[in-house]
């Protein structure tokens, strides 16, 4: 198998270690192989790929899409380094409202599997940080939602406090407001 699948404390989230072959020319690795992912219990079918480039301190998130357009994401950094965060929004989950983060970098080549039912965000730890991620549902503006990055109830431990945000991300709802919409 070309991958090692590492479970996290939150059911469904996985950190995936690809097997890279490195020599003096560079490296080669598979970044996705359906049969290996299916063997690990990740049966998602991807329908859209996204690619972003961010300067140091740019924080994007915490974003999610509501059903019927909820997205699972397979995230990796191809240049630079990012602190990548997933927040469990599954109301029936014992880890509802809990978050898990992983440092993704071009150097460590890790992938982060975030299934449907999670909010996702990241902060760029280097200039020119590029994220590429596969999604299980196409972007649907009518389903696009988010939770403010510094929500005190979630208490995500971001490694950078002075972040650069889009106008949209500055206006995202609180976790308390989100919970009221699902009750």
TrEMBL record:
The record marks 139 as: Participates in a stacking interaction with the thymidine ring of dTDP-4-oxo-6-deoxyglucose. GO terms for biological process: dTDP-rhamnose biosynthetic process; polysaccharide biosynthetic process. It holds the Pfam family dTDP_sugar_isom. The active site is at 63 (proton acceptor), 133 (proton donor). CDD domains: cupin_RmlC (cd00438). One of its GO terms (cellular component) is cytosol. Gene3D superfamilies: Jelly Rolls. The keyword Isomerase applies. It comes from the Bacteria. It catalyses: dTDP-4-dehydro-6-deoxy-alpha-D-glucose = dTDP-4-dehydro-beta-L-rhamnose. The keyword Isomerase applies. Keywords: Isomerase. One of its GO terms (molecular function) is dTDP-4-dehydrorhamnose 3,5-epimerase activity. Its EC number is 5.1.3.13. Pathway: Carbohydrate biosynthesis; dTDP-L-rhamnose biosynthesis. Homodimer. Catalyzes the epimerization of the C3' and C5'positions of dTDP-6-deoxy-D-xylo-4-hexulose, forming dTDP-6-deoxy-L-lyxo-4-hexulose. PANTHER family: DTDP-6-DEOXY-D-GLUCOSE-3,5 EPIMERASE (PTHR21047), THYMIDINE DIPHOSPHO-4-KETO-RHAMNOSE 3,5-EPIMERASE (PTHR21047:SF2). Belongs to the dTDP-4-dehydrorhamnose 3,5-epimerase family. This is dTDP-4-dehydrorhamnose 3,5-epimerase. It comes from uncultured spirochete. The lineage of its organism: Bacteria, Pseudomonadati, Spirochaetota, Spirochaetia, Spirochaetales. The gene is rmlC.
């Amino acid at each position: 198998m070309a991958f090692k699948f590492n479970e996290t404390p939150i059911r469904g989230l996985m950190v995936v270690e690809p097997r890279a072959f490195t020599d003096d020319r560079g490296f080669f690795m598979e970044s996705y192989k359906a049969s290996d992912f299916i063997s690990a219990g990740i049966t998602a079918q991807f329908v859209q790929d996204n690619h972003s480039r961010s300067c140091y301190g740019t924080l994007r998130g915490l974003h999610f899409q509501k059903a019927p357009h909820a997205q699972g994401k397979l995230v990796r950094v191809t240049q630079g380094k990012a602190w990548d965060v997933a927040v469990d929004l599954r109301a029936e989950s014992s880890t509802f409202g809990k978050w898990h983060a992983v440092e993704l970098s071009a150097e460590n080549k890790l992938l982060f599997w975030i299934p449907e039912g999670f909010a996702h965000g990241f902060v760029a730890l280097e200039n020119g940080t590029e994220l590429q991620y596969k999604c299980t549902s196409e972007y649907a503006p009518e389903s696009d939602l988010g939770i403010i990055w510094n929500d005190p109830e979630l208490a995500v431990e971001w490694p950078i406090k002075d972040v650069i945000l889009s106008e949209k991300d500055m206006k995202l709802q609180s976790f308390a407001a989100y919970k009221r919409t699902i009750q």
